[in-house]
Structures are given as structure tokens and as C-alpha cells.
Amino acid sequence: MLDFFEMKGLPFTREIEPQHLFSSASQKEANARLEYAVQHRQFCLLTGEAGMGKSTSIRSLVHQLDPTRHPYLYLCDSSLTPKLFYREVLQHFGIKPAFRSTDARRQFQSLMLDLYENEKKVSVLILDEAHYFSETMLQELRYILNFKEDSLSPLALILVGQPSLRHLLRIKLLEAVDQRIQMRYQMNGLTEKETQAYIHHQLKVVETPHEIFSEEAVQAIYQFSQGIPRKINTLCSQSLMDALIQGHKIVGESHIQRAINEF
Questions:
Q1: Which CDD domains is this protein grouped with (predicted)?
Q2: pTM for this structure?
Q3: Of 37, 82, 174, 180, which has the fewest beta carbons less than 10 angstroms from its beta carbon?
Q4: What residues of the chain score a pLDDT lower than 50?
């Protein structure tokens, strides 16, 4: 495929380097809010449908963090429990966790305060797949954020999940957690114009010397994907393979339709 389409790498993969990520309006907004939450040590909620680009925003944020000022930990565990959370954080920072959860919680609080007050560091904790968290884990967020009688925040906590997480946090039992959220953002799909720019960007990154997707193909991609980047990637990859098999240098609407049929 690379030789046939004169590419220097495979486009439409998730292995793209952070500096080459495409910035849509929604991505820029998400990135700005995440950066603000880190700078001001806030509790941030980032939501969006599957494949919308939440992980891309997190990758972009992490790429920009100065590790000497903002040590971070990314946890992606749908079955995360309070005990596992404290264990992962403490081990990440080189501390042996206590056996009891209450003791581990105290270790965690001492660690975060020490990093902030003595080392002048603001830790960034990112919890992904949070829409799968149990009520117990979501309730624990109150204690994760409670320092000095709830008067200080020495860290930035970013909760990432699908839109159902927003609704879950609105139930009465989690009201105290929901009230603590200082920054919220729900990611949206690409517009048709952004979809065209996204496809062009992906091909530019792999240094393709000419356009490959026709205007009709781009329109068909947008109509099917509704601007969801992961769907765009899959559809573009499948249609490129279809065009390669047929010996066509340009991906047209017919290639897109055949790729759609594979779904």
C-alpha cells in the first residue's frame, strides 16, 4: 500500500505522534479546558461518545506537561476500586501501600500534600473509562479530593468517560461528587469541513504527494461516520485497501460504499 499510494507511513492509525495530532474545534476546546484544569488544580470531567477523541485530547495534554512540575498518572481500568486506586498511585510514586484502604488513603493524602507544599509539584491524575466505575469508586472521589478540611486542592483530577457518566453523577447519592466538578466538557464530532481537513492532514503527515480521496468519497465518509474520528479512520483504511485491490489511485464513493458494507 505504501508504494502504491506513495506514502512514507500508514495514515489513519492511532500511532500518530502527539505533535502530528489533528486539532478540530472540539479538540482545541477540550485541550484548553484540560490545560486550565491542570494550571488551577481543578477536578475536570471530560466526556464524549466512543471514538470521539477523548484519548487524543489526553495524549495531547500529557505531551505538553512538564514532568518536573506536573508528575502524572494515567489509569484506564473499568473495574477500578478505591484500594486499587491508592495502590497504583502510591506505587507509581515509589511508596509501598499500606494493607488497609484507610491507611493507604492517608498515605495518598500525605504524598499529594508533600509534593505540592514541599516540592512545589502539582500531580495530575487521569482516570479513564470512568463511566464503568462502581458507585463506591465514584463516592471515593470525595476523599481523593478532600485536603485540609476540604480547603485545599494540591492536585488536578481528570475524569474521562462516555456521556452516561454525566447522567450517573447526577443521582442523589453522588450529588456531593458532582458539585465538586469545576470544569466540564463534552466532545463533539468533526464537521464535514473538518472531516475533509482531517483526511487531508492524515495524508500530509505520511507525505503523500497528491490527493487520494475524491470529494464524493469525503462526503460519504462524513455521512456515515458523523464526524467520529475513529469511524473515519476505520472507513478510510478499509477504502484505501479496496482501492489498492482494484488498482485505483483515487478513492471514490464506490470504494467507500463497499467499505461501509463491511461494517
A1: AAA
A2: 0.92
A3: 174
A4: none
